[in-house]
Amino acid sequence: MTVGSDTPAKVADGDFSGDSHQSTTIGDSARDYLNRLRGGDMGSLPAILGLIFLFVVFSSLHDRFLTTYNMANLVVQAGSICVLAMGLVFVLLLGEIDLSAGVAGGAAATITALFLIDYDLSWWIATLAGIAVGAVIGVIIGALVSTLGIPSFVVTLAFFLALQAVPLKLIGSGGSLRFNDEVLRGLSIKNVPVTAGWVAAVAIVAGFAALSLWRYRSLSARGLVHAPLALVGLQIAALAVIVLGLTALLSSNRAPNPDIFVISGIPWVLPVVVALLLFWTFVLTRTRFGRHLYAVGGNAEAARRAGINVTRIKVTAFVICSSMAAVSGLLAASYTGKVSPGSGGGNELLYAVGAAVIGGTSLFGGRGRAIDAIVGGLVIATIPNGLGLLNQASYINFLVTGGVLLLAASVDAISRRRRSAAGV
Amino acid sequence: MTEPLLELRGVNKSFGVVHVLHDVDFAVYPGQVTALVGDNGAGKSTLVKIIAGIYGRDTGDYLFDGQPVHVHGPRDVAALGVEVVYQDLALCDNLDIVENMFLGREETKGIGLDEVSMESRARETLASLSVRTVKSVRQSVSSLSGGQRQTVAIAKAVLWNSKVVLLDEPTAALGVAQTRQVLDLVRRLADRGLGVVLISHNMGDVLEVADRITALYLGRVAADVHVEDVTHGQIVELITAGRSGDLGIAENPATATV
Asked: Which parts of the chain span the membrane according to its record (chain A) (predicted)?
């Protein structure tokens, strides 16, 4: 009945810190990671393996696949899918879905194109108008889902149908709007000057290294849970290899006839995607909003009791998703150079959902990262790129992409089962 | 006897025509575990939700530290230092222990979260509760056992220097060893000077850890007694019949209710 009035704090303090589990060596970290994998916490691993697989297959089947010219193409092609998928991560984190994101992007691109052509406004006003269209769509969807409680599947299916009317009415069937603003079109067809590209790449690596080391120091100084220094070093090295390697690749002259003219530099779309990735990663992992988003996705009732405004979080997630869809619609228009009534109404959305899920974002809510969208988006974009080079009929493309999506969803479902069994 | 930390006086509550609570008096004393017992439908949950600020009162006073306070919602109650640990714990499986303990009240530095301070404070709190079964504070809650989850939920309630903690059936789903841990923890909370309310169906737990027992019977307080003054059998009679010998409600309340 009477237990420990003898200064429990001190006794426990030693016990606790002795018990606390900090992977002190790289071996411990590797073992932790393996345990997590076994427990079903796969993260982006399947997507990375899939990407490597696709690269090996396509490069062995076609010698032009691995050329720098094609790699730069791939980067530009993946841009709009990655951005759309990044937006979808936010609603998927809540266990919701937004089927209308693709056509919302099409509607936004239509508005932007009209502002550019009919009103002759500058590119940034037109861009802001397009993103505002996306944001408004998101507010309405979010309000219907969170206040009326209609399943997001139904609300966004209705928006998927209704929003296709916007470009059709504004453009007219059979027509199309040219999208040749110097800046917006330039995102896809122009490149960052080589020097500026290198400066940015080195700055990113240096910034990441400084941030990781500072974080390591401040955590280890207080004896808090932290990764071992070797792992931090490894992460920095890996990032440096990827960023600097990609920069080197894209900075070389990739013109098919290198003697006649020069194409080099990072396509502008890449810095846009990277900036969005960094921003949303910060929001998801380092802000209260991000934490609350995960909480609502994990257990909405617990979040509500903790004083989190669940309605506000849901509406905001839909606004972010639709706004990112608008950005994605602009990137898609920038790539094709035009906006047509069918823009965004095709498979874009399902590809983007597939990208997020392949990348490791769960359809069941509560799990996912912004980087998932990038990795998954690359997988999704690589398939038509490679099959196109191989001159395959387009039905193969649909079959393969559908198969990959199904595979990713199965991995998600199975790993979820393993998670609940292993309790990781 | 010391003054009660939290006190309800003459509380009535109806849902439509159903009169759930009749003139209920309830007090929580600092440094004591007050057990709230009663059969299903006796009004325990309603009383807890009124204390938690989730339900309003039809009539009656809500006193804290002897002063009448106006309570309009869970936030007011939390501001007083009253925390409720619900039976389903309300933890997010996909977040780790620190993230759960600070959920909804994250500390920030600039525009970002202050993980360093939150992790340190979570550690201190768990250590001060002599929690040594948790491997790491950065462990995902989904990997914890039932007892560890209960511990985290209780630590979450204590983290805010709360003065009163209400625990709804904390041992209902636990095994023998885990029940032991949680009961020890409940006792330690009271020894730290908190007012603890333990809602339980398990008379063994109640007799072991409680200082006082408030028994509800059909929405009325059947008895408010010291644990030394009653036997196991008497508590069961109070719960099932509303009276036991000279203890309990004099009349038969079933016929007296509306």
From this structure: 43-62, 74-94, 123-145, 152-172, 192-214, 226-248, 260-284, 315-337, 349-366, 373-390, 396-414
